[in-house]
Amino acid sequence: MKVVAHDLVYDTVTWKFPRASAIALFLIVSSILASQFVNFSRFVFRILWLSFASTATIEAISKLVTGRGIVRYPLRKSFSNLKWFEASSILSSQQKYVRRSFQ
After folding, report:
1. CA atoms within 13 A on the CB side of 10
2. CA distances from 91 to 78, 85, 96, 101 (A)
3. Which terminus, N or C, of the chain has the lesser number of Cβ atoms within 10 Å?
4. What is the pLDDT of residues 28-84, one digit of tens each?
5. Distance between CA atoms of residues 64 and 60, nearest Å
């Protein structure tokens, strides 16, 4: 394998730029030590749980207050950024689906 002389990883590992190599070494060693003492997955799952729970709560409250939720499920793509033939094919496929569902 040929190593390119201006490769970032190569330059960092060979200490071509000592300051960048020292920072990289410090970050690697500190992240290894931190992973031994801090349970990162617990924090990630807690943040995910809180964001999902708050989103569901806001959605339920808005559904009760306004009669419809905040989140909209688009039935079709936005036609503003499509070409005319793409928009017409989407419309025709939706029309076929509506016809089949009501027959």
Report:
1. 7
2. 11, 10, 9, 15
3. N
4. 999 999 888 888 888 899 999 999 999 899 888 988 888 777 776 555 555 455 555
5. 6
Q: Whole-model pTM?
A: 0.41
**CA nearest to 80, candidates 71, 90, 69:** 90
Residue 72 vs residues 61, 68, 75, 101: alpha-carbon distances, Å: 15, 9, 9, 22
Residue ranges of the domains in the chain?
Answer: 8-37, 40-101
Q: How many angstroms separate the CA atoms of 60 and 67, rounded?
A: 10
Residue type, 68: R
Query: Which of 75-99 are b and which e, b meaning 16 or more Cβ less than 10 Å from the residue's Cβ?
Result: eeeeeeeeeeeebeeeeeeeeeeee
Phi, psi of 37 (to 5 degrees): -110, -20
